[in-house]
UniProtKB/TrEMBL annotation, chain A:
Keywords per UniProt: Membrane, Sulfate transport, Transmembrane, Transmembrane helix, Transport
Major localisation: membrane
Family indicated by similarity: Belongs to the binding-protein-dependent transport system permease family. CysTW subfamily.
GO cellular-component term (any): plasma membrane
InterPro entries (alphabetical): CysT_permease, MetI-like, MetI-like_sf, Sulph_transpt2
Organism: Ureibacillus sinduriensis BLB-1 = JCM 15800
Subunit structure as annotated in this protein's UniProt entry: The complex is composed of two ATP-binding proteins (CysA), two transmembrane proteins (CysT and CysW) and a solute-binding protein (CysP).
Keyword DNA repair: no
Membrane topology reported for the UniProt record: Multi-pass membrane protein
Domain ABC transmembrane type-1: 64-264
Stored SUPFAM superfamilies: MetI-like (SSF161098)
A molecular function GO annotation: ABC-type sulfate transporter activity
Protein name (Swiss-Prot/TrEMBL): Sulfate transport system permease protein CysT
Localisation per UniProt entry: Membrane
From TrEMBL, chain B:
Organism listed in the record: Ureibacillus sinduriensis BLB-1 = JCM 15800
CDD domains the UniProt entry points to: ABC_CysA_sulfate_importer (cd03296)
Name listed for the protein in its UniProt record: Sulfate ABC transporter
Record PANTHER family: SPERMIDINE/PUTRESCINE IMPORT ATP-BINDING PROTEIN POTA (PTHR42781), SPERMIDINE_PUTRESCINE IMPORT ATP-BINDING PROTEIN POTA (PTHR42781:SF4)
A Gene Ontology cellular-component term: ATP-binding cassette (ABC) transporter complex
One GO MF term: ATP binding
Superkingdom in the source lineage: Bacteria
Keyword Nucleus belongs to the record: no
PROSITE patterns named in the record: ABC_TRANSPORTER_1, ABC_TRANSPORTER_2
Stretches assigned to the ABC transporter domain: 3-237
Keyword Protease annotated: no
Database matches in InterPro entries: AAA+_ATPase (IPR003593), ABC_SmlMolc_Importer (IPR050093), ABC_transporter-like_ATP-bd (IPR003439), ABC_transporter-like_CS (IPR017871), CysA_C (IPR041193), Mo/tungstate-bd_C_term_dom (IPR008995), P-loop_NTPase (IPR027417), Sulph_transpt1 (IPR005666)
Keywords associated with the record: ATP-binding, Cell membrane, Membrane, Nucleotide-binding, Sulfate transport, Translocase, Transport
């Protein structure tokens, strides 16, 4: 052990490996692991049957489905439109481009409750936008998806944009001179190059959407079994001083999110493999 | 395939990249477009490939006007300076790309594509690298993949934009030789852009020297090297020493110093004589006023030719001479010595066309 450590020390040119690694571990422990472990720690005060009853309650199960389903849908929508926005911002020059570029970050800066109230007002059945539709948008899962799309947008745009910027036009020209149509160039050359960035943007937006509370509660309507998201269930339990129940649900969210993000990371690793030396 | 470039002009904003360019290129030629950066050579190449539009003029392939034909339909192979390989595809998929994107009617079968790609990879000596990704290859290997990829679509014209510019000297030389060999085998009309005169002289059948968006001279390597038609070409194709002076009755005079130039009989003030370093003769003693005293500043002695830097004693000018090693040994000169130099061959350009 000592020998291998010494060896590594000799072989690396970049200084401070032990120091920075130690700092990383300490920092992650305090900022991320410690609070998360409290969730598990709290949950352990329940018996298994209590735990199971809490997390398998039909209301809770419906909320998992809703939360993951809407977050996934919003993530997919953001991937499509976020990529288009990034494309437009990188490839074309038009008046007001900087303003549009700045607008993209707005969902980051806006307090989520403000966004939620604004969206609920717009999309309610007699709101500015809602009145044009025969079906309800606010107070349905559709409304939740809209709110989550709103808050997740910057993640995709901001991860795809720099990659697209570095892509250059040469590979497109190469593709064209080899006889490919524009559509083939887009599908076979550009999209695969962007894929790792798109996946990163998707996973960031998805993770953010899973935990989102502020903007959703206003537009969701919060009807149990129908439009009640998991973070809301946790909040409700907290308000009833059911801390253990709240952490039990949170544990489920945590484990499920962790597994999903791990899966995305594996896909990410797989697509990235080609771009690096082994 | 033969190519006619007719009166082509192209401007980028206020910058005139190409000014009224016309050249005829015959089928099977290997052409070098040589010029300093900003001379318009890459723009011309990109116009031929259809990657760049033109403001005026026309491009004809085999007599057919293809000025407005898209790059996709031109049937040209284009090799980029920085390879422009598809990073997410293996070497095999990169080479196969041009065949796989063909419409179903003209697309070869899977086995045919397979065979063709294998053949091409064998040709560029990368048979064992088919499953690697571009990131796992060296620069020279990447450029060979790019060449194989361009050749896969059986182009009628092969265009190469500074193909060896980003490679180290040794790999460059190897690829140069290889490109010439390839051209001898396939006889596809090829045009490559370079700013390296040695590369152009070494590889091409014909050189087009460009400067400031115009063609300075077109000719075989011997023609442009031995008989440059302008000071620019003389200067650009190799090192050169300048002798400024007065032209009178077949003599170029500069103070005491006189050089016989029997072919120039008219009189001019202020002309410039151009002499290649290997056309400078070095003597230890002054024979007549056809030689001039100079002090040796530096001797560079690697290989069979000795390069000597000299400073003239009459005017504040530096000269460069190249002499064979045996001759150098016979002379027995060293740094700091004063010697007498005499131009053996001199090309004079009269005022209106010297621009340096």
């Amino acid at each position: 052990m000592e020998l291998t450590l010494k060896k590594r020390k000799k072989n690396t040119i970049i200084p401070g490996f032990t120091m920075t690694l130690g700092y990383t571990m300490l920092y992650l422990s305090i900022i991320v692991l410690l609070p998360l472990s409290m969730v598990f720690f709290n949950t352990f005060s329940m018996s298994w049957s209590e735990f199971w009853q809490t997390i398998a309650h039909p209301r809770a199960v419906a909320s998992y489905k809703l939360s993951f389903g809407t977050a996934l849908a919003a993530g997919v929508i953001n991937v499509i439109f976020g990529t288009i926005i990034a494309w437009v911002l990188v490839r074309y020059q038009f008046p007001g481009k900087r303003i549009v570029d700045g607008l993209v970050d707005l969902p980051f800066a806006l307090p989520t409750a403000v966004a939620g109230i604004a969206l609920a007002t717009l999309y309610s059945p007699n709101g500015w936008v809602g009145q044009f539709f025969d079906f309800k948008i606010a107070f349905t899962p559709l409304g939740i998806i809209i709110a989550l799309t709103f808050i997740g947008l910057p993640f995709v745009v901001r991860t795809v944009q720099p990659v697209l910027q570095n892509l250059g036009s040469e590979i497109e020209e190469a593709s064209a001179s080899l006889g490919a149509t524009r559509l083939q160039t887009f599908a076979k050359v550009i999209i695969p190059e962007l894929l790792p960035a798109i996946i990163t943007g998707f996973s960031l937006a998805f993770a953010r959407s899973l935990g989102e509370y502020g903007s959703v509660v206003f537009i969701a309507g919060n009807m149990p079994m129908k439009t009640e998201i998991t973070p809301l269930i946790i909040m409700t339990k907290l308000e009833q001083y059911d801390y253990v129940g709240a952490t039990a649900i949170a544990t489920v969210m945590l484990v499920a999110s962790f597994i999903l993000l791990l899966l995305i990371n594996i896909i990410q690793w797989y697509t990235n493999r080609k771009f690096s030396l082994q | 395939m033969s190519i006619q470039i007719q009166n082509v002009s192209r401007a980028f904003g206020t910058f005139q990249a190409l000014k009224d360019i016309s050249i005829d290129i015959e089928s099977g030629e290997l052409i070098a477009l040589l010029g300093p950066s900003g001379s318009g050579k890459t723009t011309l190449l990109r116009i031929l490939a259809g990657l760049e539009g033109l403001d005026e003029g026309a491009i004809l392939f085999d007599g057919q006007n293809i000025t407005n034909v898209s790059p996709k339909e031109r049937g040209v192979g284009f090799v980029f300076q920085h390879y422009a390989l598809f990073r997410h595809m293996t070497v095999f998929d990169n080479v196969a790309y041009g065949l796989k994107v063909r419409p179903r009617k003209t697309r070869p079968s899977k086995d045919e594509i397979n065979k063709k790609v294998r053949d091409l990879l064998a040709l560029v000596k990368l048979d064992n690298f088919a499953d690697r990704y571009p990131a796992q290859l060296s620069g020279g290997q990447r450029q060979r993949v790019a060449l194989a990829r361009a050749l896969a679509v059986e182009p009628k014209v092969l265009l190469l934009d500074e193909p060896f510019g980003a490679l180290d000297a040794k790999v460059r030389k190897e690829l140069r030789r290889w490109l010439r060999k390839l051209h001898n085998e396939f006889h596809v009309t090829s045009i490559f852009v370079t700013h390296d005169q040695e590369e152009a002289l070494d590889v091409a059948n014909r050189i087009i020297v460009m400067n400031n968006g115009k063609i300075e001279q077109v000719g075989t390597p011997e023609e442009v090297y031995e008989h440059p038609n302008s000071p620019f070409v003389y200067d650009f194709l190799g090192n050169v020493n300048l002798f400024r002076g007065r032209l009178h009755k077949g003599k170029l005079t500069q103070g005491q110093f006189e050089i016989d130039v029997p072919t120039y009989l008219d009189s001019h003030y202020e002309v410039v004589g151009y002499v290649r370093p290997h056309d400078i003769q070095i003597e230890k003693n002054q024979l007549n006023n056809e030689s001039v005293a100079a002090k040796i500043v530096h001797i560079h002695m690697v290989g069979p030719v000795v390069q000597i830097e000299l400073k003239r004693e009459d005017v504040d000018e530096y000269l460069e001479a190249e002499i064979p090693k045996e001759h150098y040994k016979k002379l027995g000169i060293k740094n700091g010595d004063t010697v007498f130099i005499k131009p053996k061959q001199l090309k004079v350009f009269v005022p209106e066309d010297f621009s340096i």
